[in-house]
Design goal:
- The protein is built from 8 helices and 11 strands.
- By secondary structure, the protein is α/β, with parallel strands linked by helices.
- It folds into 2 domains: 216 residues, PAC-like subunit (Rossmann fold, 3-Layer(aba) Sandwich), CATH 3.40.50.10900; 60 residues, no CATH class.
- Strand 4 and strand 5 form a beta hairpin.
């Protein structure tokens, strides 16, 4: 079964393959924000996609209806798209997708097979998870690699995680088992902020990725987004003494590497924050 459908066949010279997926592996939308940053920064061009028909339960991952020009209804299906770019003399394949519901072995096997046919030099995946980490700090990046020397060179904090995994973990294992050098970068996002995009965590991933690929990556637009994001979060947190106190305790515990003890639930804190942001949006109005 051909998993990837090519729209064109770009000439690629031992590309580095980088992938990120919406869903379980994308806390705070950090990984997809990071990959979208690369696509825009490097002016990447789409060259292939994966048809969603065989890989999604559309009652779980539903397509969206949107209006074009305010009149024409369009169905947007879950997308997995591949882009190519060149940067500092190196070719890249960037895959931006949505974690599938079905046939994970076929999905991952097909992607890794195509990366091997492209003679990819390495395969890098990114993930982000909810964690007890304050939003005021740049989160650490942990990671695993099929090459222990790469882990040492990058100064990665080896992950001790055991438990359920997502599509990122499956792709990493499939690539490593197939002899394709693979690295998986992971960062944490504050559990109390809800599902909105976290540009600070995206920046953390990009900065570590720059070390992996051994070339600089411009992060200025992420830093600009980060400044706006932090101001919004700070304003939102100031409306609640409980939330402010919690973040202060979290900062101290994180700095001292201490147990937080009994804390407010992340769901309660996230709900309170989201209610505040909705109030703020309502007060500003649609033209703000």
């Amino acid at each position: 079964m051909a998993v990837i459908t090519y729209e064109e066949h770009p000439e690629l010279d031992r590309p580095i393959f980088i992938a990120a997926f919406q869903g379980w592996n994308d806390g705070g939308q950090a990984t997809t924000t990071a990959l979208e940053h690369l696509i825009g920064l490097w002016d990447a061009s789409k060259f292939a996609h994966i048809d969603p028909e065989d890989f999604y339960d559309f009652q779980v991952t539903r397509p969206n209806v949107t209006l074009s020009d305010g009149m024409t209804r369009r169905i947007d299906w879950p997308r997995n798209e591949l882009f190519f770019a060149s940067h500092d003399g190196t070719d890249f394949v960037l895959m931006l997708g949505v974690e599938p519901n079905l046939k994970w072995k076929t999905f991952t096997g097909g992607i890794v097979s195509e990366a091997t046919k492209m003679n990819a030099r390495s395969f890098v995946t990114m993930g982000a998870f909810l964690a007890e980490i304050p939003h005021t700090l740049l989160p650490p990046v942990t990671g695993v690699s099929s090459d222990p020397s790469l882990t040492d060179r990058l100064g990665l904090m080896p992950s001790q995680y055991q438990g359920p995994t997502g599509i990122v973990g499956i792709i990493h294992s499939t690539a490593a088992a197939g002899g394709l050098p693979a690295a998986s970068l992971w960062t944490g996002v504050p559990h109390y902020l809800g599902p909105g995009a976290n540009p600070r965590a995206a920046r953390a991933l990009i900065e570590k990725l720059a070390v992996v690929i051994e070339m600089p990556i411009d992060i200025s637009t992420l830093q600009e987004a980060e400044s706006v994001w932090e101001a919004q979060v700070t304003e939102a947190l100031s409306s609640s003494d409980e939330m402010s106190n919690y973040v202060q305790r979290l900062q101290k515990a994180y700095a001292d590497n201490e147990d937080m003890g009994r804390i407010p639930s992340g769901e309660e804190l996230a709900e309170e924050l989201e209610q505040f942001l909705r109030r703020e949006d309502g007060e500003r109005g649609p033209g703000a």
